[in-house]
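Final report, closing paragraph on structural work. Over the funding period we assembled a curated collection of sequence-structure pairs, and we close with a single example.
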Amino acid sequence: MIARPDEMRFMKMKTFWADMAADWVQTQHMKKLFFALLVLVSLQVRARVVSDNQGWMNLNAFISAPRDWQFYLEVQPRFIEQRHDLGITLYRAAVGRTVAPGLSVWLGYGFIEYSHPQDSYEDRPFLQLLHTHAFEKFKLTNRTRWEGRFLQNHTPPSSRFRHLLRLQWRTPLAVPIAVVVWDEWFWNSNSIKAGPQEGFDQNRAFVGMGWLFGEEEKNIIELGYMNQYVNGAVDRRNHVLAGQLTVRY
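Its predicted structure, as stored:
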């Protein structure tokens, strides 16, 4: 049966409007889907960086020994979760020897006790090269350290390099005040399952003031702000109130 011309026009009009309606519905769905994706991406971007206010205290002691030998002791508690909880306590000991003016090599061991979110520990032997050059008003320090990180319930150990560049400026004030600025970056040299991954690990940047005391003002109490950025599946940016006491015997 052959359709009449008026019926054919009606069928074409019906098909046209049906296609238009389908396109409109599809477009609305695409808009909603696109908007939902934008919201999801926005939330993911925001969730990639988690911030916390923390407080770190660092107690250091350098002890001189005969024939250019030195010993080093360190205790460092770190308070996290808005400085309410003790998250990490770090203990270090090392022996070093001066091999050239201002240059020393070190061999040491660190024990890290994690208290949050669950109790665990880490053994951390390290090798270190330390160079300090004193100018008239400035003291410039470079420290390169390799760490072997033996994490509890993780094998093989993680390996990490870190380098610190530190500048200390003795102000011309009558009181023994210094301005301290430093930056330290960390680089993982291997990857372990469910642990540190190869590549950039973190960066720490500090600015603060120091009170110099003792013979030749060789001891210092520092207080300032440190920004710590930690790379990971979820990146972290910690705002740290950092204090440090360094004494030399």
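The chain is about 15% helix and 60% strand. The chain has a mean pLDDT of 86. We thank the funder for supporting this effort.
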